[in-house]
Amino acid sequence: MRSKPNYFSLFISCVLLGTCCFSNPCYCFKPKNFTLSTIAARWSSAGATWYGSPNGAGSDGGACGYGNLVSQAPFSSLVTGIGPSLYNAGKECGACYQVKCTKHPACSGQPVRVVITDFCPGYPCTSGPAHFDLSGTAFGAMAVPGKEQKLRDAGVLEISYARSFEDGDGDLAGVALKQSSGRDEWWEMKQSSQYSGQILVAKNVIPAGWKPGATYRSLVKYL
């Protein structure tokens, strides 16, 4: 007899579409009742470019399937595509990273949180160990105020990046779904990445009246 897994208890009729787009959810945005993780950032070097309009959200949704949500809160156009070395066949979709630059006169040196929403398969995203193809908004956010366009004119930029974790490590090792009523049967979904190995149950996590394409915030803490 298969043991009952302790994963998300969700309304399956509402979330099949949503979980395909948000298979690696991320709580990197900071409402007042979120707690910053004590996990120290480990910075690495990467290249960075930007695409789309200067103050836009990059592509219209990107390879991760978020659609027009990338321009809305909580993403607010602070999104990025990544090269193959980090994309990991889509398993990094929804992951949060901090990016910052210090080697250009227009760089502020302050980290900016971005969410992975797209894949960059060609040059220059394949030219180094890691590459971020940021939205114009995210790229400009790394600049000293008033020098956003000067930074965007820099071409390929050397940056530092680190995974961003709040309320714990923020990753899911697995997800299973079941109906809120009826048979106690769980439907397992494709495994994402695994870090801490913690297990969390969140019952009735999606609000009543949710529809595909709408956003909502779950205040479940990964601690």
Automatic annotation (TrEMBL):
Domain annotation Expansin-like CBD: ranges: 182-218
For biological process, the GO terms are: anatomical structure morphogenesis
Q: Which InterPro entries match?
A: Expan_Lol_pI, Expansin/allergen_DPBB_dom, Expansin_CBD, Expansin_CBD_sf, RlpA-like_DPBB, RlpA-like_sf
Query: Which stretches make up the Expansin-like EG45 domain?
Result: 61-171
List the residue ranges forming a coiled coil, or say none: none
Q: Which UniProt keywords apply?
A: Signal
- Any one GO cellular component localisation term in the record: extracellular region
Signal peptide feature range: 1-28
Return the PANTHER family for the record: EXPANSIN-B15-LIKE, EXPANSIN-B3
Listed name of the protein: Expansin-like EG45 domain-containing protein
Q: Which species is this record about?
A: Coffea canephora
